[in-house]
Amino acid sequence: MESSSALLILVACVIVALLVFAAVKLMRAHLSELRDIGINEDVKAVTAAAEPEVVAEKSDAARTLLEAQEIIVVPGFGMGVSRAQFQLAALAASLAEMGKSVRFAIHPAAGRMPGHMNILLDEAEVPHTAVFDLEHINGRFSACDLALIVGANDVVNPAAREDVNCPNYGMPVLDTDKARQVLAIKRGQGNGYSSINNPLFTRDNVRMIYGDAREILQNLLDEVKSHQDSPAGT
Ligand code: NAP
Q: Is the CB of 55 under 6 A from ligand 1?
């Protein structure tokens, strides 16, 4: 009698142990599934955040220019590479003729030598009264409708202002990220002189126009001029 109850207790213990083992296994499987989903969501979020928004059509960019009232243009090294200053000056003049405020913001380190941008804009006969140094224009970005970046990268990198781990942290930059909208012209996702990632180009208020600056600005100029020359300016 004693040995049969001992056997019963042993069998009961084995069953309980098996049940506990099965429950732990199930829980582990569930937890690792949840963890995988979490990781995948994180990866998706990072991938999604890393893709810049590109303007769908060139005419979208022209429309954005035509709708803006206050525009600040930021030229950089890429404008010089492309020799796009003449198209940029003509575009700015056309927009100014329509009654818009069009100003140029010059970072002291833009391009590859001191005064590089000023020389190029001067060559294209941009009026000096439309050209402003960083300290005189930086406060205007938050009030402007549109920042138009032409081949600039390091000088508009908000990480230099926001990210203590950024190698350029502490270097003053042009605060284009504070503008209501930003259009950035560059050929692709190439870095600037510093080879530092620029988080500006994936911000919500920023759209990219990929291609050579001169060609893109010529297209924009043609679109803006055809609007200007149309009977009702429509
Ligand atoms: P940047 O950081 O060198 O960026 C220029 C951008 O222009 C590139 O990211 C490139 O992107 C784009 N680009 C090149 N060719 C182009 C083309 N044909 N059409 C359109 N885009 C083009 O220039 P930055 O913002 O002017 O900054 C200047 C940098 O140079 C700073 O890091 C500064 O410290 C350094 N620096 C300045 C001096 C000076 O005295 N000014 C001297 C030495 C060094 P894609 O490849 O994607 O097109």
A: no
